[in-house]
């Protein structure tokens, strides 16, 4: 089904803007010129997202299939039965929302693949091999730094006597190993996790105090709203999985149920508070865990005092309620043929720090300046497109009116208006 979706979407070459950044970074790294881009990506990213759009999207297909296989393996270990494990793998693998993520090469699927692989190794390996789980978890965190919020409960709350075997390679991979990778890639002494954190600090202010003050304000004013927004999104998008997961709360005596809750609930709360709510960041990580948690309902069915035939009927109804709507939705998925063009790079969810990626990947020249009516007139003869950022000084209705006289509005969002000069 995943490969069928890939083939159906081949004419659709337009990507989400973050995916364009990853493609630009990968192209620069493989060409040996990554030093021209801001150091906020680990070189490990380019191993999963290659500088060819179709190849990178097919890698996303393989990651999706790999996650489904790992959900099955973890289901057998955590739930203890083949049928619940198969249900969890189908609930994740056939989700039409998961297949949507395969049209844009992002780090979410590779990051979750590595996290689940690390979790499978950690839960199943003996003392001699649990070191590998720390290495795999480290790679997962470099793909998506927020996965560290999932790794911490695993290290602190499971197999506590072995946690040093996980934490030591994890720290080594995130520290000196990544530092060596970064120095080779960027040709200077730089550590990407810190550069990424500093780039995010800059969005809240020039100092650390401004960053923490902003988060404290978020915690006080908007935390409840953001947590509710995450819950509502999951409920409206995956109602069957959420309902079955709630039923799984009745099975708290089982280790698998407790572990999944320790991973899912704190992570959803923390992510809701410390960063702006973005559905894809939540969904890709939550759905595999929800599918596993929902599968625990089959354990409860075994305790229902009914005949074997009635129990099988109930299990069939549960599987059908989750799988059939997704299969029906997959049959209606359609992609309008759309080719990737340079103007698409500036018409998406743009902001000023993406300019080097646009310039490098598309081979176009970009210039940042504070516009006035006169400078806009001068740019008309030299430029095809003009990105007018709304979050910087100089945004006025006068300039906007001037642009509308000489250019056509190509795209508009909360960050910028994109004009194409006539």
Distance between the termini: 44 Å
Total number of β-strand segments?
A: 3
Q: Taking Cα atoms only, what radius of gyration do you get, to the nearest Å?
A: 24 Å
The portion of residues assigned to helices is 55-70%
Tell me the major beta sheet.
3 strands, antiparallel
Find the structural class using helix and strand composition: mainly alpha
**Strands across the major sheet, in which order?**
1-3-2
Low-confidence stretches: 204-223, 348-352
Relative strand content: under 5%
> How confident overall, as mean pLDDT?
80
Number of continuous helical runs: 22
Shape: globular
Describe it for me?
The chain starts with a helix and ends with a strand. The chain has 422 residues and is mainly α. The protein is built from 22 helices and three strands. The longest helix is centred in the first third of the chain and has 26 residues, at 53-78. The model is unreliable at 204-223 and 348-352 (pLDDT under 50). Strands 1-3-2 form a three-stranded antiparallel beta sheet. The chain is globular. The chain is 67% helix and 4% strand.
What key attributes describe this structure?
422 residues, mainly alpha, three-stranded antiparallel beta sheet, 67% helix, globular
In short:
The chain has helices spanning 2-8, 17-31, 45-48, 53-78, 82-93, 96-100, 108-124, 131-143, 148-157, 163-186, 192-202, 208-221, 223-237, 239-247, 255-274, 279-295, 297-301, 308-332, 342-347, 355-362, 373-380, 397-406, and strands at residues 385-389, 407-412, 416-421. 37% of the residues are buried.
């Amino acid at each position: 089904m995943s490969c069928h979706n890939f083939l159906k979407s081949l004419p659709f070459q337009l990507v989400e803007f973050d995916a364009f950044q990853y493609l630009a970074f990968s192209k620069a790294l493989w060409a040996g010129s990554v030093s021209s881009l801001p150091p906020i990506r680990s070189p490990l990213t380019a191993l999963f997202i290659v500088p060819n759009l179709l190849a990178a999207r097919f890698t996303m297909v393989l990651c999706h299939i790999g996650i489904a296989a790992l959900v099955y393996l973890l289901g057998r270990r955590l739930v203890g039965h083949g049928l619940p494990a198969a249900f969890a793998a189908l609930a994740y693998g056939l989700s039409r929302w998961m297949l949507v993520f395969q049209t844009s090469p992002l780090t979410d699927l590779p990051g979750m693949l590595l996290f689940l692989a690390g979790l499978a190794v950690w839960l199943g390996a003996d003392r001699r091999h649990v070191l590998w789980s720390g290495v795999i978890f480290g790679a997962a965190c470099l793909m998506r730094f927020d996965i560290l919020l999932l790794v911490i409960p695993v290290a602190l709350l499971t197999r506590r006597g072995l946690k040093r075997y996980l934490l030591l390679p994890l720290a080594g991979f995130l520290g000196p190993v990544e530092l060596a990778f970064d120095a080779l890639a960027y040709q200077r002494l730089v550590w990407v996790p810190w550069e990424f954190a500093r780039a995010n600090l800059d969005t809240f202010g020039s100092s650390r105090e401004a960053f923490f003050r902003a988060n404290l304000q978020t915690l006080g004013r908007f935390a409840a709203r953001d947590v509710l927004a995450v819950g509502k999104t999951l409920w409206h998008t995956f109602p069957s999985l959420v309902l079955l997961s709630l039923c799984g709360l009745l099975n708290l005596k089982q280790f698998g149920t407790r572990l999944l809750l320790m991973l899912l609930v704190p992570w959803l709360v923390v992510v809701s508070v410390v960063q702006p709510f973005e559905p894809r960041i939540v969904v890709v990580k939550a759905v595999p865990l929800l599918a596993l948690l929902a599968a625990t309902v089959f354990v409860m069915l075994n305790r229902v005092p009914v005949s074997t035939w009635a129990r099988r009927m109930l299990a069939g109804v549960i599987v059908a309620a989750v799988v059939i709507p997704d299969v029906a939705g997959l049959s209606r998925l359609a992609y309008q043929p759309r080719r990737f063009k340079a103007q698409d790079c500036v018409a998406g969810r743009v902001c000023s720090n993406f300019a080097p990626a646009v310039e490098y990947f598309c081979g176009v020249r970009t210039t940042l300046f504070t516009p006035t009516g006169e400078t806009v007139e001068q740019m008309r003869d030299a430029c095809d497109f003009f990105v007018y950022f709304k979050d910087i000084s100089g945004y006025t209705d006068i300039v906007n009116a001037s642009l509308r006289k000489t250019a056509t509005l190509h795209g508009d969002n909360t960050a910028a208006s994109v004009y194409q000069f006539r």
